[in-house]
Design a protein that fits this description.
Layout lengths: L2 H18 L7 E3 L7 H8 L4 E3 L6 E2 L10 E2 L7 H7 L7 E2 L2 E2 L14 H13 L7 H8 L2
Parallel strand pairs: 1-2, 4-6
Antiparallel strand pairs: 3-5
Length: 143
Amino acid sequence: MDEAGMADEFERNRRYFSALDPSIRPENFAYPYGLASIGYKRQLRGSFRSSRGILPGINRRLVDLHFLRATPLVEELIDGPAIEHACEAPESGGWLIFYSHDIVARPSPDGCAPQFLRRALRAVSRRDIPIVTVAEALRRAGA
């Protein structure tokens, strides 16, 4: 998608959310299919506080606010031990973004089953990790 197409997409999304609830102000963006580019990053800076890709990892210290790392809660891409390892992020001074597309008994290839989500939530809970939005995580990080 070129810059004009991306701008049109942003505007369509803004109108959609505004029709649902005028108080909704999208601040954070997720790259479709994780496809980021320098051009997209430059364009997004004017419209969003942050953007995330699909590169797994922990966000710590200096981060690129327009290419935040995000760990999939997608059963085909991550297993229980990897979730446990990812939840060590706060212990190492970082923060973690989990993402999934659907949470249903028979998930799509980009989703997970409810019991898989529960496993991730238990891992987070055992460590007393606060669950917050990306906007709140950025606020807490002083970004």
